[in-house]
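Continuing from the previous page of notes. For each protein in this section, the sequence appears first, followed by its structure tokens. Read the first protein now.
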Amino acid sequence: MSRTPALHPVVSPSEPVTTTVKTALALGAAVLMAALPAAPTSAGNAHGTPPHGTPHFDIQAHRGGIGMTVEGTLKAFDRALELGVTTLELDVQITRDGREVITHDRKIDPGKCLDTEPVRPGDPQFPYAGKYVKDLTFAQVRTLDCGSQQDPRHPDQELSPGEPMPTLAELFALVREHRAHGVKFNIETKVEAAAPEETAPRQEFVERVASEVERSGLARNVTIQSFDWGALMAMKERMPKLPLVALTEPGFLEVGEPGASPWLGGLDIDDFGGSPVRAAASFGASALSPVYGNPQDGAVGDPDYVPFTTKELVDEAHAAGLDVIPWTINDKPTMRKLIDDGVDGIISDYPNRLREVAAEYGFKLPKRYRR
């Protein structure tokens, strides 16, 4: 879920805690520590007690967990299932002949996927790496080796040579093989709303993904996410019962700019007072998935870090009946800060780290599925 947003320095500090509340918290903590064995401490309010009165927290493996295994491959999802995550987060692109493949990039990155051989001798489109998925057939895309190269940003990645871009059907089959009946799928339709010529048409994404979800029999475990809120609106018409997750970041909202952002499906954020919560709620989204802050690889405590997912945003979303699942958080201090601010889950390249933080807080950890 990597974007390059315009920096909108929105900082809304939490209201100060009163002396009375501080005293009550201190007494409560003392009673708790006397009654329970020592638990791992954290920078937040953890101390082994789930915050906000719920034992549940959504641990989402971003593209299967890029920090652990090469992204978007069956090997990545397999390892995430064995680790134990709540949700497999993934992206879908559509090929020229209308097949879906699980991959993040609309243009095939030669640093991630290697050419092997053409589908037929003399294929004029070969090599395929560097071309848009929407311009290639399913057969052409499936010749690519997307498991042999390590992302230098993630030196601990486990490689899986020869892995192709999988299909939704293959992922659903893998989950069935694990008997992972409780695992969820957060499927992103990667419509490029600001450059629609670079991806398949919006409606093609919607129809293909909806058809595969219906065929799987696992619709009850699926959420659909997108930065392109128009795709979410179209999915609501196609499959009204599927929960919708509105992805966003400040640059895509275009607060204070004339007209509607191409990402918001015809909505003008200024008609909602600049509130992504109010805008997302207006078309029936069940969750908001905002970038956690800027820069996107920043962390709490960095001098240039500006939070976007704040306690105020979370409180507003909860009041409107929306969950908040920010992306993509990889360091533990920032994970803790967001949990303290009340988020309902986190999307991370390192679900192993997130699972450890969730354990600190006393959340109920998702089951591990080993074959």
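Done with the first. The second protein uses the same format. Note its length before scrolling.
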Amino acid sequence: MSQRIARKCRFALKFFSTFYATVFLVGCSMVGLEKFAHENKLEESVPDYAESTATNEGLSRQDKLNLLQFDAVISGGKQADTGKLGVFKRLLVGPSDEIRFIRPVAVGGINNYLYVVDAGAQTVFRYDLISQLVEPIGDIGSQFSGEPGNMFVSRDHSFYIVDEMGKQVIQFNEQGDVVQIFKDPPNLSRPVDVVVDELTGNVLVADASYSHIVVFDRFGKAIKAIGRRGSGAGRFRAITAITIGAEGLYVVDRLELPVQVLTMNGDYKYSFGESYHVFPSAIAVSGEQWVFVADQADNTIRVYQDAELLGVAGGAGNESGRFRTISSMWVSGDKLYVADSLNRRVQVMRILSKTSRPDALTS
């Protein structure tokens, strides 16, 4: 616990060292802020911080590179023209206009398709991993009270998106039509993440205000809640992300135990990451049960197996393999897709390990 407190203090010192240099920028646009940060190199100290913490954890730079390796960047692509008319149009006039992501905040997928929630564009894009064409899906943005948030993509190609301001989760079919709304005002006040138990069809929604996970059946009825506010095993204070793996339900919390693993019934099993995380923000699990936990404090991804830290990757910056606000991650075979929000892209990281299901995407 003392190591975790020391890490928080070090991060706070770095934050305040840049505060006075940036406070006058409050009225600037996002473009202006990004330009200032780049020209004045306000982020240069953060990658060094990430590397120094890795050293303190007994992990060499080589250890980090052996776990995750940068593979590609997806920042948009040519717009897809679907249907027979679309094919005819491509034959006549060539590829359509280019689409560029503005602020991708969530990523997920199935088979050869990657779905990207772009809060800046207020829509969801479907990216074809084979053709590299991008297609906006329906009029999804009009369904949300504010910005769309985290997502889960199901095996039937439907996808679930958090509507935090609307206090609900909306399920869409692959054409972008609303299928179901999951809402429970007494127990769901600030949803932050969603995952589907494919075995039962239950939809689990993490709530940051009530610090619990609301479980809905497939028909949209809330049937129970997992966890409650407090400290210690099975309790939460600021949930940021959830996912499901072979071990059960993984719950990420930025103020309590960083990662807790529960049974699907909500019973506590174990926790990990207490000495390493300041602001854990996203989680994904591979077929080999490697657990990837992103931290917004230093823009790193820590890799665990059996609750033991294997290594660290990333750090702050706009170079390949560096990040500026990791808001979501998704595993597909030997690839880890990372929503690198403020760099306006999805980065593809190769997992240097064999996986059991190369043809299916799992969060």
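What the second structure shows: Confidence is low (pLDDT under 50) at residues 13-56, 60-65, 83-94, 354-363. Helices lie at 2-22, 30-40, 45-56, 61-65, 83-93. We return to this in next week's lecture.
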